[in-house]
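Usage

Read records sequentially. Each one opens with the input sequence:
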Amino acid sequence: MARKSIPLLSLLICTLPLGCNKPGQIASQDSATFDLDGTAHITRVVPMPSTVSLEAQKWLASLSQTTPGPESLAERRKRTDEWRVSQSAEARRLFPVNVEEATVAGVRTDIITPLTTPEANRGRVLINLHGGGFNSDSGSLIEGVPISNLAKIKVVSVYYRLAPENPFPAAVTDVEACYRGLVAKGIKKIAVVGDSAGGGLALVLLSIIRAQAKKGGVAPVGGVAISPVTDLALTGESYRTRAEADPYFTKSQAAGLVAS
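and closes with the structure output:
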């Protein structure tokens, strides 16, 4: 049952930006066109769910009115680092937890624990893989802190090595090493969650560990990919057909991630 829910959650969050119109407005209409060779180009507008907060609706709507400009890697990291520091502090204010820096299997992490842990959750760990385009950190504590507080579970936020200084497969090696390091500590119930670039890493890690679990390893108990970056070949038709509807993540931006 859990395995069936993961693709649904991933699909839902990935498609939210496609319906980032202001409440009560429709940015575009459903349509379908066909090329002479039979290629179909299908556009579907995803309405804003009523469960999304007004604050989130306002932020999502703003994406259709702003286009990210070019910036250097240094500028990008400076921006994401400043945002991460300020929002991490806000997250810890709203969701009190304990945070301890630690190294797991040679990989830097933050161990985030709730102020109180239910007996049923002891021995359970959630690995959190932040986003940031593989070359910056746009999440870590911002994601891990509220998860730990609300779910009452230990979260291990992994600071995997970043490109371009550490090209593929450095990030994959780090997250896999962290998983194995936790298993070596006797932890058998491990789930994985990742956002954006971290979502892609989560899917890779899950596929690696599940394959090796068939040979006797410890399989993950679950996983969630939030807006994962999965098409690094840049072959997806939606890069073109949804270019105007999704200003937040463009093909040129994805190409930059591949190059890094």
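Summary fields computed downstream for this record:
- The longest strand covers residues 97-104.
- The helical segments are 2-15, 54-63, 73-94, 141-151, 170-184, 197-213, 238-241, 251-259.
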